[in-house]
């Protein structure tokens, strides 16, 4: 099924402009921390950053064995990249704080350059009235409270010019989708939370994106989303990984003049300065 898109062309495969081996997308010397990196999007993102030359990659999750598998995959092809396996639970502020501090303490600078907030949870897809209350609320515990804890922990160990990539979902801005009440609500709420972090934390760039739809444990995957300095105009925006990078660059002037473009809000509501 073709997805509607304000940006063309719409990509479903890796293309040169976002190839992590492209010199302009190099992350050499950078430290990257990725949550939910034991499988799916998180594991693929870790591999992509290894391809782009990151010096240190911290992979965080609750399943140590899965994290070790991700580390082994990276080590097999990119042995020069230091991969740090750090078990941690985002729903516990002490646990995730300890995880980030452990990674930061292993870095030469003691600071983390890039945070990829990828971990998430989706409950059984069913009408609202038929959902299991405990499973319903678990979505919010991980997708909202978990990311709240993550951001609280990250601000203490972030680099001065850190980048935050929030792996969100189109569910944050789509109209009603049957059976997705908890997931849509949690993604909308977490989108606003990351917006606040980006505005309140001086020097931090926050970009939120829908990674695409394919088969992983939670429902999507993406190739490397390159974030060179020229991507600064996307700070505070919500984009789709499938949107063409060159076409997005062509919208730079429009985006700089329209603070509401590619953000989540009420269409037609006047801008508040």
From TrEMBL:
Q: What is this protein called?
A: Ketoreductase domain-containing protein
Q: Which GO terms describe its molecular function?
A: oxidoreductase activity
Is Oxidoreductase there in the keyword field? yes
Q: Which InterPro entries match?
A: KR_dom, NAD(P)-bd_dom_sf, SDR_fam
Q: Which organism is it from?
A: Immersiella caudata
What UniProt keywords are attached to this protein's entry? Oxidoreductase
Q: What is the lineage of its organism?
A: Eukaryota, Fungi, Dikarya, Ascomycota, Pezizomycotina
Q: Which family does it belong to?
A: Belongs to the short-chain dehydrogenases/reductases (SDR) family.
Which intervals hold domain Ketoreductase? 30-200
